[in-house]
Specification:
6-stranded antiparallel sheet; 1 helix; Immunoglobulin-like; Jelly Rolls; single chain; 273 residues; mainly beta
Amino acid sequence: MKSTTFFTICSLLISIFSFGQTSTEQFETESHGSASFTDNGVIFNIISHVGTFDIQANYPATGWNGMTTDNRYIDNSNDQSFPPSFSIRTTSNLFKVNRFWVYLSALNLDLNVTGTLTITGKLNGVTKFTQTKMTGFVTSITPTNGYTLIDLTNLNGQNYSNIVIDELQITANGGFRYMGFDAFTWVKDSNIVLGTAETATASKEMGIYPNPTHGPLSIKTGKAVEVHIYSQEGKLLKSIQTQKGINEVNISEFPKGMYYIKTPSESTKIIKN
């Protein structure tokens, strides 16, 4: 009986941790003009490809959270660059996309223009899926405040919501020159890579101190391993071959900000003051 109960509990735990955590980012706690946002412990960078995309908070009640208007979202306000294109990308977590809402219009916010929207999912720079939506865009303010739902569980008759990616790129064409992006529903694939707000402590392979630091760092590793230091945007800044024990490193040359120190099995966030 005890054996059966133990097995049942283990099965339930495995089932729970086998599924990712679904979250919807509505951007309401993000800062105006920011080129990144944090949701469910994960930092996403907003990468502008054509035009300048960032968090918009100057026009209350012009976003859409999937049920009612809200105040913040991503957009390319007053940028005439064409075709407008941006990505949301994280370098320390893989994720899946369920759905999001987009406002697509001319620069004067006129919804009565025609265009297309291309949605691309990438993993390590490799395209995992791409689809272009050509019809079905909202052309009036009511009832969704002008936003069109993009549902990846049924995009052009295909389900892309189970594909693991680290970057979602969105590009508008045709008459679509302005793009607003809101209510991003995604799944954190925490079984594959650690989240940016998490430090892998279970393996006890790496310890870093002091944190925050003015430059000097002591990196303690349980074995010889190559350590990489990345910027918040995911750019590799430095690689160090460590030995078992304490290794002294200095990042005084880096600007103040947040960085990530990674080994093949761990990721730790550090602050440079």
